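User: Please fill in residues for this 106-position structure.
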């Protein structure tokens, strides 16, 4: 992931992006927009948080079925991380197996 981000940030001599298809990623790394990533599993979210901590970009996690398992880590990020939970349905994938269900915990 870090390699992809760093290659996305490479520019030509006149400042244009070498990879125009990464324009959204570059905007997020420059602080112009948050990076929105769909993730459900605690392992995936934890990996994303390590990258976010190293690079300091604004992050929005879409989905976040197991985000409650990382509540303390999410609460202590700088800049703050937002989690957009999807409406709760019964687990349909391995990634959502440890989600909170309809317990009211978010």
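Assistant: Residues filled in for all 106 positions:
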């Amino acid at each position: 992931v870090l390699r992809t981000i760093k290659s996305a940030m490479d520019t030509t001599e006149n400042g244009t992006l070498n990879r125009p298809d990464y324009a959204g990623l570059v905007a997020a790394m420059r602080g112009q927009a948050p990076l929105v990533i769909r993730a459900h599993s605690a392992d995936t979210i934890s990996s994303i948080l390590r990258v976010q901590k190293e690079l300091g970009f604004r992050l929005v996690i879409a989905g976040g079925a197991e985000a409650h398992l990382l509540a303390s880590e999410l609460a202590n990020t700088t800049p703050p991380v937002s989690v957009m939970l999807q409406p709760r349905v019964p687990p349909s994938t391995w990634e959502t197996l440890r989600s909170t269900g309809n317990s009211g915990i978010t």
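For context: The CA atoms of residues 9 and 54 lie 15 Å apart.
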